[in-house]
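User: I'm designing a mutation panel for Thiamine thiazole synthase and want to avoid disrupting the core. Could you give me a predicted structure to guide residue selection? Please restate the sequence first so the numbering is unambiguous.

Assistant: Good idea. Sequence first, for numbering, then the predicted structure tokens:
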Amino acid sequence: MSTTTTTAVANGSAVYPVKANGMNGHKASPNDAEVLEDYTGNYKFAPIHEAEVSRAMVKRYFTQMYERAVSDVVIVGAGSAGLSCAYHLAKSRPDLKITIIEASVAPGGGAWLGGQLMTAMVVRKPADRFLTEIGVPFEDEGAFVVVKHAALFTSTILSRVLAMPNVVMMNATAVEDLIVRTDFEGKQRVSGVVTNWTLVSLNHDTQSCMDPNVIVAPCVISATGHDGPMGAFSAKRLVSTGLLAELGNMRGLDMNRAEPAIVNGTREVVPGLVMCGMELSEHDGSNRMGPTFGAMMASGVKAAHEAMRLLDEAKVVEGKVISKVAAA
Ligand code: 48N
């Protein structure tokens, strides 16, 4: 039973306990007369005041938005690369405030299915070790393994990432620009992201001036993929801001070239911005691999290592890199 002293307030036919000092707080646990887990036609829920639902969501969402206005790492894109990166980074550095921004309502990117809408997911060795680490079963086919349904990987990595206390995910939210500043070395440095509700981002030409919001961070990891309405977002924005001369443009399918190229090419492409996953194929002009996903997992892990290196080398104050850490 809750020990909170509450003042019962009559409201229509029901009585809703509220905290004496304002916002509806934690209600006393319902007594047995109020709830009944009955499947014979008499199931009863604890009574609720509709405003409690709103306040439960608003309080949490906007508190986390306030707190994550300055993050340690922002990951753009919750596809297989972005989620693998978030998992490895959050596990390796539980002290970091990691904020994932995902444009779709449903995170997971292109990893809900294998190829041509078929359900099995192929992962080439040694990336099967990542599956073992997060607890995804697979069938061993020798040089590669097969997860019986791609959604088994994606739902597992999502649940692992969202269970991490230092990770916040804001889905249905788009990064619609990058914060770029001249840093202490006179270089153009990515220093955070510019965000908006995705439905707003997709409708800027229907209304005048729906200004965005910002999240400041010393490290941004872009994993926005190569297709979809916002694919390769950061790579394209680097070109339009003059930080990249031109897109490399993804080359044709070659599994044996593509997967090592993406993993080994995962890096800090401009100061403050690490790029991973298939977005890198558009940035670098590397081949595509088609329906094998091991490179996304390994690229995500490498991006996590790149982010940790970047942060270890940087002196950061209020989310801004103000100098390099003196070499030990
Ligand atoms: O799954 P994707 O598209 O990207 P990756 O790199 O995580 O995985 C790519 C992989 O699924 C393949 O494409 C496979 C291996 N096929 C290869 C081939 O040859 O065809 O996830 C990117 C995520 C998506 O969920 C997008 O919604 C999101 O990024 N996103 C954004 N989120 C926020 N702001 C944005 N501007 C943005 N753009 C994309």
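For picking mutation sites, this is relevant: The CA atoms of residues 18 and 24 lie 5 Å apart. The domain at 72-320 is CATH 3.50.50.60 (FAD/NAD(P)-binding domain).
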